[in-house]
Amino acid sequence: MAPYCVLAVRLRHALNSGVRRYHVAPVLCQRAKVAMSHFEPNEYINYEKLEKNINIVRKRLDRPLTLSEKIVYGHLDDPAKQEIERGKTYLRLRPDRVAMQDATAQMAMLQFISSGLPKVAVPSTIHCDHLIEAQSGGEKDLRRAKDINQEVYNFLATAGAKYGVGFWKPGSGIIHQIILENYSYPGVMLIGTDSHTPNGGGLGGICIGVGGADAVDVMAGIPWELKCPKVIGVKLTGKLSGWTSPKDVILKVAGILTVKGGTGAIIEYHGPGVDSISCTGMATICNMGAEIGATTSIFPYNERMKKYLGKTGRADIAALADEFKQHLVPDSGCQYDQVIEINLSELKPHINGPFTPDLAHPVSDIGAVAEKEGWPVDIRVGLIGSCTNSSYEDMGRSAAVAKQALAHGLKCKSKFTITPGSEQIRATIERDGYAKILREVGGLVLANACGPCIGQWDRKDIKKGEKNTIVTSYNRNFTGRNDANPETHAFVTSPEIVTALSIAGTLKFNPETDYLTGADGKKFKLEAPDADELPKLDFDPGQDTYQYPPKDGSGQHVDVSPTSQRLQLLEPFDKWDGKDLEDMLILIKVKGKCTTDHISAAGPWLKFRGHLDNISNNLLIGAINIENGKANSVRNALTQEFGPVPDTARYYKKMGVKWAVIGDENYGEGSSREHAALEPRHLGGRVIITKSFARIHETNLKKQGLLPLTFADPADYNKIHPVDKLSIVGLKDFAPGKPLKCIIKHPNGSQETIMLNHTFNESQIEWFQAGSALNRMKELQQKSS
């Protein structure tokens, strides 16, 4: 049916080019049914509903709307009655689809199985990208992963078949690249169980990272709740050129907003500079918006997106988007809560780190800064790829740099790895010669997977505890994230800068000004890389790695062995007993940064993501205990002995003692992994009290029946000591916007009271009372039946 829409576009163009101008009614395009993806030919894009909802909300609010408002409000469950106030109200939304990566899909599908529903209500997919460890190279690592993870892959494949979920096999590529190539489109609302889901904003979609319980809500056909986001506008002027890349835009923004500056907000890029950025470059910028805590990021629909849609076999979607373009760009005169302006013509290449993605430096300064701070300047490994930077353009620009070095007889001084974003990218860069060039310069091409970016790296060139520097084109560089070595100083930058620095072997090299010495002894300077944003020929799809769900999967059997060490069916959490939480012990008072990597480490622990009891053995092992300055060492208040955090939590649970965690700022930043919420709940935790929370983690805690609370006065963090006991009172009158009292009981018998804030709405309070959001869903199902 798509040709009707194409015909409408051509007819309007023809009539508008004549002397008389005629109006071609959108109804012609409305008759065309355009599929959301090639893989779901009977699931259609519904721009008419988006348009209808936008018009209802615009009339109600009586003001111009930002692009993100249009798409978010365009997906409201009840646009006529929904209360809308940025940063205040909770919206009930109807996303178009769900995507899950294999590490988080295990728990999401286990929760969906527990719901008792026969099939997912919206198009959903599972992507196998997290469980492949980088070791020897692409083919060998993939074979090894398929063997080691056979039980998990079989579970996901059969669960997908039974419940109507598409399954992308291991080797397909990284979830976000697959989404960009196949599922994202202008105006879509997609939620994904990975924090870098906002990557899809590069194609003009609202794509939001969530925990598995949120995904289950959407797959169950239940309206999904999101606090109405604020909107931060980033106005881009000028034009990218030379060594400056799209990655430098988000590295600069991260330096401005910091890791929590985007919390509760959507970052909306606009302005004349947008058109100088490729579609995949826009995706890079949106992807790393997760590192500033943003709900998501988005760009307005433009010709670069249209070009990408066409090259990925979706010209029919582009034609339909052209018809509804007024709803896929911001209204003139719309207002942002904050505006940042960046002149791309003046922007310099950046490199951020170490240990945090918001510590921004111009590449020209990093050598001197590193020497001053005592950071190792010699680069041990350079790594390009990841979901943030593994596009055809990224690989082409890196190859352009490598080709110059080869022409002068040079190879990388540092070890060098390449991670293609998808099977399509791998096959295409092999065909077009980029992979060959990157290998010749000294690179090792890894599997189409996350690999070292998430700690799936069997690193052999250093010992744990050895101080060293790596440079990557990844997104995160938290302590120990890539290789489990807390002394690895990781810096994030663009793929072309990684390549240049790997050739030079040092942070003191600035490719814009410095010279290299060729094999012939002559000095030469690298020219700024230039590469096609898309291949001249069509993409090579490579191997077919997609498993369609059958029309009727009711007869499909899903295996979960009761003796499995990888998978475990879930038992419901206990309901709230209707009483205040009295005399809770403090499991740990955390000092400083505490990301989801600190709460539930990845790397070798990924293999237990489908087994809640086993994965709980990594609870908070990376968090620093304020009492002794150590990781994974806390005082057992009942025995007075120090021991590992998980062991202490298990002891408290065995003794029937409830416990709490005290945290610092932006607690739970980073990954969307809901295991960081499931684990404390499983081991007897009840309350997490912090100065502030990262958005996804706060929601995940609520979903699992925990109480995420914040100090009304952040200075009260200093009033609580690890040896104190805490009581949360007033839970019988628990209500939205009403603070709770916390009584602190000190060992000397004295006590004091502080106030704690929360962001619970009425339905979220019901989650707490029922024991979890899943428990509450089952209660509602029973009532309705």
Automatic annotation (TrEMBL):
Name the catalysed reactions.
citrate = D-threo-isocitrate
Q: In which pathway does it act?
A: Carbohydrate metabolism; tricarboxylic acid cycle; isocitrate from oxaloacetate: step 2/2
Q: Where is this region: Disordered?
A: 533-560
| GO BP, sorted A to Z | tricarboxylic acid cycle
Co-factor binding details: Binds 1 [4Fe-4S] cluster per subunit.
PROSITE patterns documented for this protein: ACONITASE_1 (PS00450), ACONITASE_2 (PS01244)
Describe the location of the Aconitase A/isopropylmalate dehydratase small subunit swivel domain by residue ranges. Answer: 586-713
Q: Key word Nucleus present in the record?
A: no
EC identifiers of the protein: 4.2.1.3
Give every Aconitase/3-isopropylmalate dehydratase large subunit alpha/beta/alpha domain span. 69-505
Asked if the record carries the keyword Hydrolase, the reply is: no
Cite the GO molecular-function annotations of the record: 4 iron, 4 sulfur cluster binding; aconitate hydratase activity; metal ion binding
What superkingdom does the record give? Eukaryota
Q: Which cofactor does it need?
A: [4Fe-4S] cluster
Q: Which GO terms describe its cellular component?
A: cytosol; mitochondrion
User: Would you identify the family this protein belongs to, as annotated?
Assistant: Belongs to the aconitase/IPM isomerase family.
Functional note: Catalyzes the isomerization of citrate to isocitrate via cis-aconitate.
NCBIfam families the UniProt entry points to: aconitase_mito (TIGR01340), PRK07229.1 (NF005558)
Full protein name: Aconitate hydratase, mitochondrial
Task: List the source organism.
Answer: Malurus cyaneus samueli
